[in-house]
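Review form for a predicted model. The reviewer records the input and the model, then writes brief findings.
Reviewer: anonymous (R2)
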Amino acid sequence: MKLKIGLSAILAVGLLGGIATNADASVKLSKEEMKKATEIYFDRCAGCHGMLRKGALGPNLLPKKTKEMGTDALYHIIYNGTPGGMPDWGASGEMSKEETKLMAKFIQLDPVAPPEKSLADMKKSWKVLVPPEKRPTKPETNRNWENYFGIVLRDVGKVAIVDGDTKELVSIVPSGFATHILRTSKSGRYMYAIGRDGKASVIDLWMKKPQNVAEIRVCNDARSIDTSKAKGYEDEYAVVGCYWPPSIVTLKGDTLEPLKIVSTASYTYDTEEFTREARVASIVADHHKPEWVINVKETGQVWLYNYADPNNPRIAMLEAERYLHDGGWDLTKRYFLVAANARDKVVAVDTKDGEVAAIIPSGGTKPHPGRGANINHPKYGPLWATGHIGSNDISFIGTDPTYHPQYAWRVVKKISLPGVGGGNLFIKTHPASKYIIADRPVNPDRKLQTQLYVIDKSTLEVVKTIKIPKKYIKERTVKVNGKKIKVKPRGPVHIEFNKDGDEFWVSVWGNKLVPSAILVYDAESLKLKKAIEGDWVRTPTGKFNVFNTKYDIY
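Model under review:
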């Protein structure tokens, strides 16, 4: 199985690892093997273990440790996964046995740093495909475009635009490799995509058939993108947070013209050690003032980045905790809560006063909220919820220090999902729904992995588990280059409600070799309403409703 990715610069450097001096002479890779392993590592492993393999959400994979473990032990972990959140790359069919063994060898070799990237390098890839003056001045469609869903077709490098009312496919547009997230502008007109290869693109949803109107590759590895949402700056700027080179890149919102690069390489907040790989994990746009909340993973800093003058940004660096990952707004959009998953903490940032309001033990292992889930509880008041990759805990944190100070900035209730182990990636709700829905796609137990978990907002208890119909998660045998291989969908991943909150959508996280499905459930009855299927539905993961995303409703 070949992975296709535009990583010529990284691969060119990565090939050097094949001729690097290695203490363990028994581990050797050819140039072709090194190229393939570099591709797979970038795609599947770098996000958790780091481009330089120094670790973050996952442990370090430096040769000193991996050589001691040996190829067989590493193969077993990569193939079968772990209860702490390591996916079962081999057992799920996403890596063949040969690829799993290749990676067990690859991580015993010395890592090589990928290349840097300048503004001039970025501009070589910058394309304005449809100039602003040639774009529509009003929506060209009669569809309810604010209820469109942008759906990441992860491993095929595309984004599907689907009508949330009719469930019809409206358009498919190319995107960066392994697109990570989508964000909409404040007007909702533009949808921005960022690929793990650092390619940013902007889709004009006002077109009768939405398409990319601009694109640029700003880094070699990226995870986050957002826009300017403050009054007077609507749709004016976009920002990309890069994993490598570790940096923040400000772009023009309508054309993606690169304006400014700011390096995030810095010193860890606690030990004051310099780290080159200080990656931007997540970004959210402040709705009240021209700032982005930017989370720098390895240094444990939250940056409040004022973009009023993009060429001369003012940055407040707040000491928080490590390793910062993902998070979301509270109900008022004053407080931003972000997971520091290496320390099992949640950091609450007061964006109005520009300070860290609290650092809260999350109540579980490796919190991973996505954007989290907001509710207004009859007893506790406003709460924000997070799940965990490493344990089966869902934690509810009070977020109202003004009217509910006795519950603010602490876990007021913690519940356990059924069974053992974590594996939760996303938790989501909507103001119109009485339920919170959680997934668990990286739990190694097949039964737990292929269910959704329904939590009642009033009782804060799991009231139902939804089993995904077997037809959508069954193992299949396909031929690749004349060879039969088995592929097995991992299960449901990433919940997103529609604009009105009366239904939620979930992806069946499959393999790109076979079509998958997006399942639409009634948010009241919890019954399956529709399965969106078709040959185009391959490796669907994140889904982003235009209305909910532009207003940060979750």
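Findings: The longest helix spans residues 31-49.
Further findings: Helices lie at 8-14, 31-49, 63-80, 97-106, 119-125, 446-449, 470-473, 546-550.
Recommendation: see findings above.
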